[in-house]
Structure formats: structure tokens, C-alpha cells
Amino acid sequence: MIILAACGHNEEQLPHTSAMVGLASAVRLPLHPPATVYVTDYVPDPSGIDSLTVDSPFTLVHDTASHTVSLSWPAVAPPFALLHIWQGGSAESVPLIRSDKRVATIAYKGTAKDLRLKGEFTGWVAESVFKPVADGFEAQIDLDPGNYQYLLVAEGREMLDPANPDSVDNGIGGFNSLLRVPGTELSMLPHLSANGTEADALLIGLRGETTGISVLWQNRVLPPTAWTRDENGIRVNIPKAAGNLGRSHVRIWAWNDHGLANDLLIPLEKGKVVTDAGTLQRTDFHTAQMYFMMVDRFVNGDTTNDDPVADKEIHPRANYQGGDLAGILQVMGRGYFDSLSVNTLWVSPITQNPLKGHVEFPAPHRKYSGYHGYWPVANTVVDHRFGDDAVISQLVDATHASGRNIILDFVSNHVHEDHPMVMAHPEWRTQLDLPDGRKNIRLWDEYRLTTWFDTFIPSLDHSVPQVTQMLSDTALLWVRDRGFDGFRHDAAKHIPQEFWRELTRKLKREVVVGQGRPVLQMGETFGSRELIASYIGSGMMDGKFDFNLYFDARSVFSGAEHDFARLAASLRATLATYGHHHLMGNITGNHDLPRFISYASGDLKFGEDEKEAGWNRDIQVSDTIGYLRLRQLTAFMWTIPGIPVMYYGDEFGMPGAGDPDNRRMMRFDLNPNERATLSVARTLAALRKKDMALLYGDVDDLKADGPLLSYSRNYLGHRAVVLINADSTDHSFDVIKAEGLSTNFGSTIAKTAQGHTVNVKAHGFEVLTGH
Asked: Is the confidence at residue 83, as pLDDT, over 70?
């Protein structure tokens, strides 16, 4: 039986106007009802809504006062459904995805007065979840499929789970127990692929048993008369209304009783399927290739604004070093970003920071300046050490003229103690002194929404309406009035979701609709995928940086672990959580983490104090294998779904331990290994820029075999096959269909009776592309 998700539109009468802003993100339902949907996340002005309906067997209660919907469903419900919002006789629809959680059990045999559990699924807060059983204790947790690190805490003492032999290096000198929650075998799920076009139709491949299919153009369901299914797959007629829009999209889901298939996203231009990446624009955010630079540490383009803090207690590496916005302009003018195919710049915070230094609360109590920009004393004033309003205007205009976006790192969680806001309203700060006598400093998970970064950096109480209004208004100014294309939001998980909804409503109303400019919002959150996903959606942020995937990739590619099974499981978990066409950031590293190459070369050891290593040693690249491993990491991040993000210097392998050693001044004078690494990064970025399979293709045939990893991506005849060999010897990969594919990194292809083999060098990789 095939269920067709439709709501009765005639294809010829599909409206091309929309009350929704952008494509409606999917609501990922909890394991048990009810679920709350904020209607204003999708329709900023709900006054024109006639009614709401939902696919059976789901039911809803619509609260028109709060503009929320409470959804319920029976124990047995399909993996996918649609919530329909009706206005003027037609509906726009919001995808609903059923939870794939299952019960995981952790058992402890023996006695303990106080037994707790902490792990990725608790935010690393020790929780009392164990219940007594006959021979000890047992905890049952609802978890999505994937791998989870955890520890037991018995009477205050952390320990590995004695009943679980499976453990993993925690990256800080110890080990965590590893809980593996199996998911549905991929062979049991359907698989969709965009196979080609014919006249004004899409030809979609469909593999496996299917009980339901849903096809949407923009946010409107295409009725069954607009598409057909046969033994070859699905034929989707492009609606005539698409010809009225520049950019629109077809989206397709399929499912069966076992679960949901991968989703497809296919861009259209004036009703024609986009097959040439050269016709895509910088506002097609799925094509973004991002470059992140710390302004002070990039290039000193104007020495007249150099003004380090005059304090001998501040080491030069913790003080201002002269980088500024004029330096970014100079680098852009030299064509450096062109050579990296960068179309999105992310600049660190540029608002005014204090003129004095401060001693950090944690030992050894070193003194720092605010060179990084994260200690704002103002929210709209440019720090004089970086430039002024005129330079901002030049940078934004030059970036746009070069066909790029520019997003601003913005701080909404906290301010410096000298900020006029908290000086005038100290009651707008969260609590510093806790009832148990501790200081509420850097308790990232235990006091997630109130903790301070340091004694002089008060966190703001966003439950105070004036705080939310003031900060959302100042953020809006940078996009609406100064032309930035969006934000990287600092410390996003430490701010309530209500703030992000308020800011996003303002951006949609005044920029996306008011100025006709799409806005990209990405956030920083360390934590579980479930926590991260709770901040992503049509009413909040578009994506975040995928630290979970990065940490798994770092472990394998650095040589700390030799089995790609962990990374393959992590990639599957990312796709299942955020969708197969998400806008998560796939990073090479960032300003809060030691440089990847320093681990990969062995100059920095997992488990040592990375900050102290940077202060006490001259971290360089002593083993050239680090460059090979960095190239593999870059290849992975540039060939999977999401937004690849290059941290300045990672394109050639700048070394560094923990902060601030990982924030060295940018270099352009490179040694031969660095030049070769930069060349590989440029080739990868150029491939992604021009290849539709690497931008919009499905992920298929993902295989992990010890130190070998392979997967393919396919889009309307465009194919890319990625082969990664982390072993110390050459390996041959079997590629069944290699006709029409070419190598890009020097590997050799040989014809065999079964297909083809591709030989990949030790610590190497290959990306095959073609039709």
C-alpha cells in the first residue's frame, strides 16, 4: 500500500505566493506526545490563517491566543506526516518526522549508596536515573540510534561501566564507556535518488519497499495527479507556478514501516531544474563554502589603529596583534578567497571591547586582553582597533561585489562588566554566587542558561523582556542597516529559545521580507545532537557547527583511532538528526580547539593540557604525516552534506595547541608541505563549487572497513565517489560503476570483470567525479 501525502490542491491552481518565509523546516517529534509547534515559526503573521489540519492518525489542538499547536498521535503512527496551515483556500505544509528513539539499558551489578549516570545524553551532568533491581541497578534511556559516551558516578567517583568493555578515548587523557544504540538496517529503508530530467519533469529513483511518498514544491503538496510511480521510480511534473519564481525547490520524502528514507532537495530556476552549479547564487546557502578568520590575527592592513593594551602582565600572544578589517579587504583584493572558492566570510566579533586586561578565574590565572572580540562593552560600536563604520561599509560592499556573503560573529549571551547595560541595570545579570557557595562560572551544562564565562563577564538574564528586546534590536541593526548577511551566534545554547524566536521574527519581517534578502544564522553549541537540533528550525537558526561529527572525524583522521566505523555511524546520526540537506557547519577546527594538524602530527597528545602545551612548547609540525591527515579531513568535510568551514590557516596546516596558541597570526609564506596542502584544499573547494552532486546529491553506499571509508553522492546524472585510505599502505577500492568518472587526485583506475578498482595511496584519498 502506498500512502500519498496530499491535501487536495489542483496542480494548475497552485499559488506561487507564500505566507511562509523560506522552506518550512521539519518538526522532529518527541518519542511520546504531545508535541508543541509554534505557528509563528512558519507564518510570521498568523492573522490570515483560516484553519489547521494534520494528516491522520495525528490530531491537533490549535491555541489561537498563543499561536501554538499541540500534536498527538497513537502508539503506531507513520514515520512522516504533514501539518497543513490553510489561508485563502489553500494550504502550506510543515513536515512532521516521528521519533526514531529506542530504549537503551545500562545495568550495574553490585551495591552503591549513590549511583548516577553522566554522558552525552545528560549534557555531562550526573543524573540519578538508576533504579534498584534484583542484582543491582538499571537505567533505561530513550535514545536515537548512534554512539554515546558516558561514565558511571558511584558515590561521587567517576568510573567506566564495568559491564561494558567498549570504551573510547575522551580526548582529554582518559576513556569513556561507549554505548552503541543500533538503528534500522539501511537495507530495510527506502532510498531516493535524483536520476535525471525529461521535458518538464524530474525522474526520481526509488529503491526498496515503500508505504508512503510525499512530494512538495516549496511548502505546497503536489497532488497525486502531478506525479506518477512505476517500477522505474517516480516522475514528478514541475508545477507551472514554479515559472513565476526565480528560485524554488522540489522536496521529496519516502518511508515504509521501518522508517524514513533520505530526503531530496532539488533547486529550480524559473521552473527549470538547476543542473549547472554555475547558475547558483551566494544566497543558495547549500552552496556555501565558509572561511572563518579572527580579525585581530589575520592581517594588519592599517597600522594607524594598532592599540594593544598597555599592560606588561599581558603576554603578547594574549594581546592585540594588529589584525583589522582593512587587512581582510587587502586579502580579498589579492584574490586569496577566490583561489579557495570561498563564497561566505565569517568574521569574529568586531564590537568595542575593553581598554584594559583581566585575569582569568581558572588557574593559573593568566591575564588577557579582549583581542578576540568576545568581551563587548558596546553592541553597535566598531572596535577602533579593527576599523570604523566607513571600513565596515567598504568591506560589506566589496564582499557582495565579489559574489560573497559576509556573516558577523555576534555575542548575545553576555557582556563585559563595563558595558553600560549592566552598569545601569545590574539586576539584568544572572546569578553569580550559587546557594552551595560556588561561583557560577563555566558550569556549561549544570547551569546552562545562567553560567558566566568569568567574573568580569556577566551573563544576561534573557527572561527579562528588556534584555531580549535590546539585544535582538542591536543584532537586527547589523543585518538590516549595515548589510551583513547573517550571524554566527556565540554561546547559543546558553540562551533560551525564546530569544532566538524573537530575533528570527524580526529578521524575517524586516530583512527577508522587508528587503528581500535571505539571512543565514548559524550557532555555536557543544552538546548532544538532540540539544543542538532543538535550536535549529524555521523559527530559530538555520544550522550549527557539527562538533559531534568533527570530534569523531578528528579521532579517526588524526590516527588516534584506526576504524572508520565510528565516523560512518556519526555521519549517519548527523543525517538522521538534521536531514540529508542540512546547513550544519562541517569544520576543520576553530578558535576554541587545538589545531587538528598538531594532533595529526603527534606534536600534541590527546590527554595533555592543550593550553599549557601552547604556553610551554613551540608546537610545530615535526612529522609530515600530519599534512596528509589534514588533507583527508578536508576532503571529508568538503564532500559531505552541509557547509564546509575553513578556520584560517587550516588550508595549509598552521599548527597550534590550545587557546591562544591556536590563534597565531596568519601566514602567507609557506613551506613546500604547506603549499602542497593549500593546493589540495583549493582543488577540493573548486570541485565542490562546480559539482552539483557535492552540493545537492544524496549520500549512498556509505561503507567503513577498518581504515577505509567510501561513499557516493548522486544528482541528476552528476556523480561523485569519495574514497579515503587512512592506512599506512596503498589500498584498492572496488567501484562498480566508474564509467564516465575521472580522478582528481592522481589515483589510478583499472577495469575488472566486476567493474573497476581504484588504487588510493597510503594516507590518501580520491574524489571521482563525472556523469
From this structure: yes
